[in-house]
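Field reference: sequence -> structure
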Amino acid sequence: MLAMLRESREDALRERRDLFMLAALAYTWTHLEAQPKPGHDITAILAWNVEDLENTPDFIIDRNRNFLQQGELYHAEANVLRLAYRRLRRLVGPAREGWADTGRFAPGMARATVFTSLEPCPMCHASIHMAGVPRGYFCLEDPWLRDPQSHELRVKLPQEYYGKHLELIESRLPACLEARKLIWTLVDSGQTRLTKILADRGEELFKPAYERLTEAPVRVENAMLRAQLLLAVGKPWQALSRRQDERLVDMATALTR
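Structure field:
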């Protein structure tokens, strides 16, 4: 009986992580038209208390904004971290006089998980690590960071330093495996510019994840989360009415009141 309960919990957690990854890809697709071409169509989500199945995780979602901000440091992961610190400052309050008490944010970041549509670059990897986020999941491999033949990382970034540990996990979600395969096929054919691949093949890469997010059945523990993710992703009403799922419609309606 205990083993069955453990297995059920693991299945619910796996589904929850998959929902966040699907949402990252779906957000990229629903915002393709707003992204200047060619641009980095990348999305990141920072979520708190993902493993607490008794509650729906709070989360922040954002995308790459280099073009909009006219700079090179506005990557999706960096943007959600900035938003997270802004939120934590409101919750924790101002620093004490004298020493810059940045450690007061550590408990909040230690409960966070990052989900990103593209594996973090070295800058974002270091930022996530230094923020104290212990775990992250990514979908697409970045050909610029990997050997074109073996697909292994050419730059091995440490998992632990400054007393902090970051475990970065490659998602095995079917939508990620399919998108990964397409990108490497295009790279092997001579299309080496990732920005152009994401811009030109964005619908093919990301739309299946949106359809999966809107149509796949979910466990009761994750029903509210899926409704909230649909609202964050955009275009939820068409999907919900198409599925004729009255329970999800009621949830999404309650969230907008």
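Note: The two ends are 41 Å apart (CA to CA).
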